[in-house]
Amino acid sequence: MHQLDLFSTSGVPHPTEAAVTRPVKVKAKASSKKAAVATTIPGKKRGRKSLKELSEDPDLIMELDKLVLDKQYYSISEVAAMFKVNTSLIRYWENEFDILQPKKNRKGDRLFRQEDIHHLKLIYHLLRERKYTIEGAKQKLKEDHKLAARNFEMVQALLKVRGFLTELKDQL
């Protein structure tokens, strides 16, 4: 039996079909199950990013510390851009963590204060950098929020000292 290539007229695969595979359903006989044929398209990756890909930017919190928070309120899109996450993740964290309570206007838009952004930094640190689960981070914040915040601040201070020392070492 011959296999029919639906994606190429010449029988030679297109050069752009080599990086990412995506299953395509093909009908076979009525009695057999559906078969999957894999095609590839470069640079196209669907779905959510893995934690490894997200943690490629370990200095995100340091960048946020350098960022001047001059406004009284920030929209959810601005906050999501600061943390380089989707707005849906910020809304999810708001539902899951009690310490995160942004104000809402009459329209229902979330308005984040500087205090809320500080809480988001702490949540981001626990979930993305320390690799806690949602339940583990909730428990950590419930047990002693002040202790978790103090530990977070100590880690940030040590990272600043480390950055200063590496700059000093590079200058020598």
From TrEMBL:
Question: Keywords in UniProt for this one?
Answer: DNA-binding
Q: Does the keyword RNA-binding apply?
A: no
Gene3D superfamilies registered for this protein in UniProt:
1.10.1660.10
Pfam families, sorted: MerR_1
Which GO MF terms are attached to this record?
DNA binding; DNA-binding transcription factor activity
Ranges where the HTH merR-type domain occurs: 73-128
Top-level taxon in the UniProt lineage? Bacteria
Name of this protein: DNA-binding transcriptional regulator, MerR family
Q: Which organism is it from?
A: Chitinophaga ginsengisegetis
